[in-house]
Design goal:
The chain is mainly alpha-helical. It has helices spanning 13-28, 33-42, 53-101, 136-153, 168-174, and strands spanning 104-110, 124-130. It has 2 domains: 13-76; 77-153, no CATH class. Helix content is 56%, strand content 8%. Strands 1-2 form a two-stranded antiparallel ribbon.
Length: 179
């Protein structure tokens, strides 16, 4: 991505791009600004312009600003993906909860009850109806999703701890021993 050419710099856009690329490489290795200037000035093809610590600092600042913008965008995208996942899990939890609240009917069919197989026997059928109960595990999953979403969006209030700490001297005075 081409950067704007600094109007106060005699460098061309191509020279600036090359300088920034090399500057970032050295900056990430921990070079001092002066050492970066010295290294860049010794490269072939730097004829016609002179670099200064101020110029290099400005280049590094512009790159760091781009990195910050990219990090914010990446964080936002990651947060959105996580919210979509949480929404999906919560939706499935509510569907499962609704299913668990429906009346359950179990039908059991038995053939040949108490009679040998070759005689034909009797078929016995029983139906058991289970009441509406709902499985609380699905509510726990939905609540966990709400908690995760709240934390991810920063909506949870900070926890405050009120400590009433008295100094040793205050305790001694209060008990009458400090006088």
């Amino acid at each position: 991505m081409p950067r704007k050419l600094n109007s106060t710099s005699p460098r061309t856009g191509i020279q600036r791009e090359r300088d920034i690329k090399d500057t970032v490489r050295m900056y990430l290795k921990g070079y001092t600004l002066q050492r970066i200037v010295d290294e860049l000035q010794q490269r072939p093809g730097v004829d016609g312009y002179k670099l200064s610590v101020t110029t290099i600092r400005r280049d590094i600042d512009s790159v760091r600003d781009e990195w910050k913008k990219d990090a914010i965008i990446n964080l936002h995208e990651h947060r959105m993906r996580e919210l979509e996942r949480i929404d999906s899990v919560e939706a499935e939890a509510w569907i499962a909860w609704d299913r668990s609240c429906e009346q359950q009917v179990t039908v059991t069919v038995r053939k040949n009850v108490g009679v040998a197989e070759d005689v034909g026997g009797v078929t016995e059928e029983s139906t058991v109806t289970h009441p509406f109960s709902g499985d609380p595990r699905y509510l726990a999953i939905a609540q966990k999703c709400v908690d995760q979403r709240t934390r991810l969006l920063g909506l949870d209030a900070p926890v405050t701890v009120d400590l009433n700490v008295r100094s040793w001297y205050d305790i001694m005075v209060a008990s009458g021993e400090g006088s």
